[in-house]
Design goal:
Helix content: 40-55%
Distance between the termini: 49 Å
Structural class: mainly alpha
Low-confidence stretches: 487-547
Strand content: under 5%
Number of helices: 26
Radius of gyration: 36 Å
Length: 547
């Protein structure tokens, strides 16, 4: 059998740790931890916004992750509409929709700039293609200048009128119809036909001519070669009427995806332009870019977080819950824009807890187990938080001073939970006395009592160490567990020994040849009837204890 250690995330561990810490540091600063019924609970600051996360990225950073947070600012963070207090609700909604659409447009221009710059290199000697490439990023001034530099003043004039009244668009449509009618398409370069289609608001295809001979020309697909963001942008900037909402534009793009000449599907960046990864995954379903999902979430009130916050939509790895977790908390708890579909009237969502548990496991796997504890504080049920955090501590029973401080001060984990985890480790090592002390520190007196009566008291009796036995029993003074007096035969023996610990009671013990196997207790001078016939010792007779 061959076992291979396989990567769980798309990038190497240092890179993943750095990315996780960048977001978690902010989250830690903006989270309140309180203790309810002895169990800590974390609550995100309701004033945190997407804009707080964008500050973690430099202005020139146009990575996919940076674009996610900037898109959130455009669609979900508050906007100062600068309207008087007397403005009607209808006016507020209309101005808000306009401002959101403008913010989305600016975000989209910034997000596609690297793609535009890349395509301009290939279009440097092709004037129509160069103009179209600029327009695909809504860079109108640069497109006009490119046409002027090429000496095409008519093209520059048409470009400058983009977005003008509908009659200009209608004139261009009639021009395209005349070219097709009189079979002039064959003498026009495809680049110009594509531009005229854009001026006419045609977003799918310009029909060619299937005739034989010189009149024959191919169809021109307007969005050919463009990624989904620019294909969507063409419809936002040039295809749909100016008074259409973001939802209208998105609906047009979604409808065009079903057409014969469909634009690019909204795939995540890692599939659009694949880059070397530590590991790649082949899944049965195709992911959708979380950017597209967020636009859909804003536009359609029926869309839930389940529809847009899938792991593969945010990351190449289906096991990466980092962005899922932060986005879910921000959208559902802080901004309260949308929630998971399974959220009950009592406020519980199994899907939200599943993402929390997955992210905690991811952090633990990468060595950040104390931060995993912080994430687990966001589990919604009392029992779920206690069980998950205790299980985590049992896997890491020996924290460093720094880790212990983080758990106790920042996460407000009860110190007794740490002692309980240590007791479990000592039990696995068969260290009865260490386990006993840890259980007392964990305030688990019933379990400590069982260790005392089953192991330690017997050992002290067999060695005749009445002082040790008395000290062990006195540790329970004022906090006797329920079984202290009524725990059965061994408990009664233990109680007798506590009563006899002052030396007034003596025992007669016959010792076999091997001190490691057992002693036979013959009688108790004070009350022989209360003496069990046989006791077994669990440790070597040379063991010593300090109380």
């Amino acid at each position: 059998m061959y076992i291979q250690d396989s990567a769980l995330l798309a990038h190497d561990t240092p890179t993943e740790v750095e990315r996780a810490n960048r977001l978690l540091d902010l989250h830690l600063e903006r989270t309140r931890v309180e203790v309810l019924d002895g169990v800590p609970l974390a609550s995100i600051d309701e004033t945190i916004r997407f804009g707080d996360f964008t500050k973690l990225f430099e202005g020139g950073n146009r990575s996919h992750e940076a674009n996610i947070w900037r898109l959130g600012v455009a669609l979900f963070d508050e906007i100062d509409l600068r309207l008087p207090a007397s403005a009607t609700e209808e006016t507020v909604d209309r101005i808000s929709a306009i401002r959101r659409k403008l913010a989305l447009s600016k975000w989209l221009e910034n997000a596609v700039t690297p793609l535009v710059d890349h395509d301009l290199v290939a279009a440097s000697t092709n004037a129509p293609l160069k103009v179209f490439t600029y327009l695909s990023g809504n860079q109108l001034e640069q497109a006009v200048q490119a046409a002027i530099d090429a000496g095409d003043m008519r093209l520059a004039t048409l470009v400058s009128q983009l977005g003008c009244p509908e009659n200009v668009r209608e004139e261009v449509i009639r021009q395209l119809e005349d070219w097709h009618k009189y079979k002039n398409n064959a003498v026009l370069a495809d680049g110009y036909r594509r531009l005229y289609a854009l001026f006419a608001g045609i977003m799918d295809v310009v029909p060619g001519d299937s005739s034989r001979g010189v009149d024959r020309c191919a169809d021109v697909v307007v969005s050919s070669g463009l990624d989904w963001k620019r294909a969507f942008g063409l419809r936002l900037w040039y295809g749909n009427p100016a008074d259409h909402s973001v939802g209208d534009v998105l609906a047009t793009y979604a409808q065009d995806l079903q057409s014969t000449h469909a634009p690019a599907k909204p795939l995540p960046a890692y599939l659009e332009k694949p880059a070397p990864l530590a590991k790649e995954w082949t899944m049965g379903t195709e992911p959708t870019d979380v950017l597209y999902g967020l636009i859909k979430l804003y536009s359609d009130i029926t869309v839930s977080l389940d529809d847009v916050l899938r792991a593969r939509d945010c990351s190449p790895s289906p096991l990466d819950a980092r962005l899922q977790w932060h986005l879910a908390l921000l959208l559902s708890q802080a901004l309260r824009k949308r929630d998971f579909a399974d959220r009950t009237d009592e406020g519980y969502s199994a899907q939200a807890d599943a993402i929390t548990a997955a992210y905690a496991a991811q952090l633990e796997e990468s060595g950040q187990w104390t931060r995993a504890a912080f994430v687990l504080l966001h589990l919604q049920t009392f029992e779920g938080r206690a069980e998950a955090i205790k299980a985590l501590l049992h896997r890491h029973p020996n924290p460093t001073d720094e880790e212990r401080s983080f758990l106790l001060k920042r996460c407000r984990v009860p110190q007794t939970w740490l002692h309980e985890a240590k007791a479990a480790e000592l039990a696995s090592e068969d260290d009865a006395f260490g386990e006993f002390k840890a259980l007392l520190q964990a305030e688990l007196y019933d379990r400590a009592h069982r260790i005392l009566k089953d192991k330690l008291a017997i050992e002290a009796i067999l060695r005749g160490d009445d002082a040790l036995l008395k000290k062990l029993c006195l540790l329970f003074e004022g906090r006797e567990p329920p079984e202290w007096e009524y725990g059965g035969q061994v408990s009664r023996l233990l109680k007798v020994e506590c009563d006899c610990a002052d030396g007034s009671c003596s025992w007669t013990i016959s010792r076999p040849r091997s001190c490691s196997r057992g002693y036979t207790l013959q009688s108790c001078v004070r009350d022989p009837a209360r003496t069990p016939r046989r006791l077994r010792r669990a440790t070597d007779c040379s063991a010593t204890y300090r109380v």
